[in-house]
Amino acid sequence: MIKDLFFFIQKKHLVFYLLIFALILALFFSIRSSEINKHRVNYKKTDHSAEIKQMMQKANAFWDLEKNDSALFYFNKTQLLCVPKADYADDYVGALNSMVEIFQQYGNYSEAETTLIKAFPYLEKTTNVKYPVNAYTFMAYNYLYMYDYEKALYYHRKALKKAISTFRKARILSEIAFAYMHQEKYQEAIDLLEPISRYRIEDKITPSNTNIQRAAILYNLGLCYLRLGGHKEDSFKCFKESLELTLTLNDDYELIGNYYAFYLYYSKYNNPELKKINAEKAYYYSKKTKSATNEINMLAHLLEADNAGNSKKHWKVYSKKIDSLLISRKKAKNQFADIIYTSKKDKEENLELKNQKAENELELQRQKNRSFISYIVISISTFALFFITYYITHKGRKEKNDAVFESEIRISDKLHNELTTDIYDTLVFAKTHKLENLENKEKFLYNLTNIYSKTRNISRENSAIIVNEDYEKVLKEMISGYTTSNLNIIINGLNSLSWSKIDRVKKITIFRVVQEIFDQAKIISDASLASITFKKNERTIVITYADNSTKIQDDVNLNKRFATIENRLKPARGTFNVALNPNQGFKVFVKLPI
After folding, report:
1. How large is the angle between the packed helices 166-182 and 209-228, nearest 10 degrees?
2. 308-366 vs 68-81: helix axis angle to the nearest 10?
3. Coil, helix or strand for 579?
4. In whole angstroms, what is the distance from residue 171 CA to residue 162 CA?
5. What is the spatial distance between Cα 543 and Cα 554, in angstroms, rounded to a whole number?
6. Which residues contact 548 (CB under 8 A, 6 or more apart)?
7. CB contact at 8 A, 516 and 475
8. How many whole angstroms from its chain centre is CA 257?
9. How far apart are CA 464 and CA 472, in angstroms?
10. Is 122 helix (H, G, I), strand (E, B) or coil?
11. Sheet of 488-492: strands edge to edge?
12. What is the pLDDT of residues 149-159, one digit of tens each?
C-alpha cells in the first residue's frame, strides 16, 4: 500500500500536490463556513403539477405519432419533475410505465427492468389502480421475454389481485394462459381461456378494446387446441372467429398473428397450398405494418413453406433484414440511453446552479469585506479542482473506450471465426442442391438452425451477468452449456460457497474467467471428461479445472491461449496458473481473494 502511494507521488507528483492543496483550501473554507451555520437557506416546495401535465401531453402526442425517441425524452422529463415522488405518484409511475413499454418494444429488457424497479416503492401511493396493475403486467412481460416464466406468472398474479374490472381480470387471465403456453402447459391454459371465451366481456372505459381482447383470447385458445392435438375443429373455429373480429378492427398488425395461426394449422394438418397462402399473407401484413421483427419471422416461415426457387430469393431478403434489424435496434438503444443521460444531467446541472446561486448570495451577505487575496485563493482552488476533474474524467473515458473497442474486436473475431464458414457452406449448399428434395431441404434447415444457435450462444456469452440470488444457478447453467455428446463435465463445490457474501465485481470476474477457460478448452482440447472444482480457503476462492485431453503437447502455446484470463484477474488481485500433464490433459488453477 505504502509502496503504491510512493509510486503515485513519483509518477503523478503534480496532480498529487494539487490535490493536497485543494484539500487544505477545502478545510479552510469549511472552518469559515461553520462560523455562519446559523444562516441557512430555506427552500420552498415547488408545485410542478402544471409543468408535469404539459410534459406528459407532449410525450403522449409524440407517442401517438410513433416518434418513440421524442416520446421517451418527454416521459423521462416528466418522471424527473416528480419530486417529491410520493406527491406525484400517479404521474411518476405512469411516466415510468410508458418508458418501459417503449424499451420493451425495442428489446431493451435490462433498461425496462431497471426503470420498473424505480416505480415499485410508489405503487401503493397511486390513486388509480391502473398504475400498479400496468407496472406488474409490464414486469411480467419483461420476464416472459427473458424466458423466466415462473417470475412472469408471479407478477401476472400480483396484477390480477390488484385488478378491479371484469375486463381487466379477463385480460390478465389470458396473459397468464399465454405464459402457460410458453411452458407447454396447454391444458392449464385451456382451463383458463375456455370460461372467458364463452362470453363477450366488454371494456366499458374503451369499448374498442372489447373485440381486440376477444380476438386475442380466441387466438390463444386456438393455438392451445392445435398444440394439444385432438381438437382440429375447435382450433379452426377459434382461428376463424378471431380473424373475423380482427377484420372488423381494420388493424393490419393483428392480422399478422391471425394468418400465422392458419399457417400453423395447415402445417399440422398437411395442406401445403393453404399453408403457403397463409404464410404469404402473414408476411404481406408484416411488411405493410413495417414490423421488422414480425417481417423476419414470417419470412422465415414463408421460406420453409415456399418452393425451392423462391426459397433462395427469400433467403437473400431474410439475411439483409436480420442485419438491418440488429443495426436499427443498436442505434435505438444508444439513442434512448443518450436521452436518459442528457435529461438526468440537465436536471443535476440545474439543481447545482440553484444551490450555487443560494450559496453565493449567502457568502455576499456574510463576507462583504472579502479581500483580494481570498479571490486569488478561490481561483487557484477552482483551477486545481478543474484540472483534477479533467484528468480523472479523461483517463476514465480513455479506459472505457479501450475496453469497449477490445470487446467489440473480440466479438467481431468470434463471429467471423465461428460463422463465416457455416454461412458460406450453407449458401453453397443451397446453390448446388435441389431444395425440393426432402433430405436436402431438411439438411438446409438444419444448417440454418445451427447458425442461429451459434449466434445465440455468442450473444449469451457477451450479455450482462446476473449477480443476484440466482447467480449460482446461472453459473451452473453456463458451465453445463459446454456439455456435449462427446464431453461430460463434473462440477464440484459450487453450492458450498456463500455467493451472496461475495461482491458483484468478484462474481462477474469468476463468471468470465470460468467462461474463458471452457471457451479455450473447447478449441484446443479433445477431452471426453472435464471437471471444475470450487473451494474456499480462508479469504480466498480456489478454482481448479482439469480434463483428460491428449491433444495438447506444448506448454508455451498453452500459456498464450489463457493469457486473457490473467488480464481479467489483475484488477481483482487474482492469480492464475496452467500446467500440462502428459497424456492426462491439462490443469488450470485460479485464486481470487474475497
Report:
1. 30
2. 30
3. strand
4. 13
5. 23
6. 527, 528, 529, 530, 584, 585
7. no
8. 25
9. 15
10. helix
11. 488-492, 529-537, 540-547, 586-593, 575-580
12. 999 999 999 99
Report the run of H or E that residue 520 belongs to, with start and end: helix 504-524
The per-residue DSSP string of 258-305 comes to HHHHHHHHHHHTT-HHHHHHHHHHHHHHHHHTT-HHHHHHHHHHHHHH
Three-state secondary structure of 550-578: CCCCCHHHHHHHCHHHHHHHHHHCCEEEE
pLDDT of 310 reads: 55
d(CA 221, CA 211): 15
Convert 4-29 into a string of H (helix), E (strand) and C (coil): HHHHHHHHCHHHHHHHHHHHHHHHHH
pLDDT along the chain (594 residues), means of 10: 46 57 62 49 67 91 87 91 89 93 85 92 93 94 92 94 92 94 94 92 89 92 92 93 90 86 89 87 82 71 61 50 49 48 48 50 59 66 70 64 54 63 75 76 69 58 74 90 88 88 88 88 83 90 88 67 80 85 80 87
Residue of 208, 205, 216 lying closest to 177 (CA atoms):
216
429 membership: H or E segment, kind and range? helix 372-432
Q: How far is Cα 285 from Cα 258, in angstroms, rounded to an integer?
A: 10
How many whole angstroms separate alpha carbon 242 and alpha carbon 218? 6
pLDDT tens track for 268-291: 988 888 988 888 888 888 888 776
User: Taking the complete model, does pTM exceed 0.70, yes or no?
Assistant: no
- N residues, the chain: 594
- Nearest-10 crossing angle of helices 149-162, 130-145: 170
Q: Supply the DSSP string of 20-74, one letter for each residue.
A: HHHHHHHHHHHHHHHTTTT--PPPPPP--HHHHHHHHHHHHHHHHTT-HHHHHHH
pLDDT value of position 315: 47
State the pairing for strand pair 586-593/575-580: antiparallel
Closest CA to 515 of 552, 554, 460: 460
Check residue 202 and report its DSSP letter.
-
3-class secondary-structure state, position 497: coil
Grid coordinates in use for 309? 426457387
Q: Which helix (H) or strand (E) holds 134?
A: helix 130-145
Helix, strand counts (H, E) of the chain = 22, 5
Distance CA 277, CA 266 (A): 10
Are the beta carbons of 592 and 541 closer than 8 angstroms? yes
Nearest alpha carbon to residue 243 among 216, 270, 221: 216
Q: Given the C-alpha cell 371465451, which residue does it identify?
A: 197
Output the pLDDT for position 413: 63
Return the number of other C-beta atoms located less than 10 Å from residue 317's C-beta. 15
Closest CA to 268 of 235, 316, 291, 294: 235
Q: What is the pLDDT of residue 219?
A: 93
